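[#protein-structures] MJ: dropping Major facilitator superfamily domain-containing protein 12-like here for a structure pass
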Amino acid sequence: MADDMADDEPKALGRCSVFTYGVGHMLNDITSACWYTYLLLYLTDIGLSPRNAATVTITGQFADALTTIIAGDLIDRFGHFKIWHGMGCLLVALSFTSLFGGCLPCKIIGSDSPVVQTVGYCISAVIFCSGWSCTQISHMSMVNGVTLNPTSRVACVSCRNAFTMIASLILYAIAFFVFNKKSSSSQVDIKNQYQLMAYISIFIGAVFVITFQLGTKEPSLKQESDGKRVTVSWTYWLKKALYYQVLSIYVLTRVVTNVSQTFLAVYVINDLRMSPSSKALIPAIIYLSSFIVSVLLQELKWSGERLKALFSAGGLLWLFCGAAVIFLPINMNAFMYVLSVLIGIANALMMVTAIGMESELVDKDLDGSAFVYGSLGFVDKVLCGVFLYFLESYESADPVACDPAYPCFSVTRFSLGFIPGISALIGVVVAFFIRFHTSHPKALTEPLLA
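AK: finished. structure tokens for Major facilitator superfamily domain-containing protein 12-like:
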């Protein structure tokens, strides 16, 4: 009888299959790290006003949000995950080199006016973010069809999260190498630096895309007798109170990570007057500490209450970090290295548990998972886009005159400290009222990254 039960247990994926799935988002991750960390700095460095730079980012964010919800619905209906993934990666690679490699429409028209540059970079941002969404939603939702084994599913998602952090560390290593080279501050040299970073990032990401496409099988999904896909109606999710609670947790977590990542490089350069290499070193420390914490979290036995507790711990830690960012003076800028470790820990605690809550929401309703990921991503990108537009619009492109012994107000300091801190606090309050249906799920018997 025991043998029959063992035969009924879905077969676990091998380590090679987990690895090839996990690296499938690397191109998205390395370009996303560059987008959020350096796009604002890059656009203002080459002469765009903060408001024009904000227009580029919010245009991309809205394109990302719209494509996310459309791609989620189409993937639920028709499947073909790998085709969506490959198409998205191609758009990302082509547009990213234009986004950070120079304004292509400017070269075609022969004009570098602010209007032409803004429109040109907006076009590149729309293509980039649309491709990014196609890759993200197809990759996240296909894990439900790759394996029926619950431990293997968690292993795949955990492997993907680990490579997200590795991708960010690779990007910051490239940035440290590029920005540490001696060069003049002319716009030509600045563009060459970012162009080199973009080309290296695309090459590394493309290697992992090929690995994913060759090593991962297209999932076979449920179909009715007439050949149509079996899907869960979106109204099913909208009637669940838990959907809105998890939506709030996920969106607030993304606000914390995206807004802080966007203003971090500008903060350490303009507000703390740190060296140019610090705009690569500080983010690298954050992601390294996040990676270490994420690996340690795999050994825990997860339950709904533990998800809530660790999310709350991360949120309260971010609240402390936000306060420290607001009040940190220039002559104590070395403390930013310690603060970056704490930010990395807080980010890992919040992101891992927020994604875990998404999994608790989907549970066994696998045929509508793309809608869940797509709809949560849609709200996240719209809200983050609005936040970033208004915050970036009022940001100064030049360092604010300030007494080194006292913190002085700037939009960057407010954006990096206050917005993520308050968002984290609201997330902790929402988490307190969440009640999961399975408060004591069966613990995993294998490490998440095994």
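MJ: nice. The chain is about 75% helix and 0% strand.
AK: one more thing. The first helix runs from residue 2 to 8.
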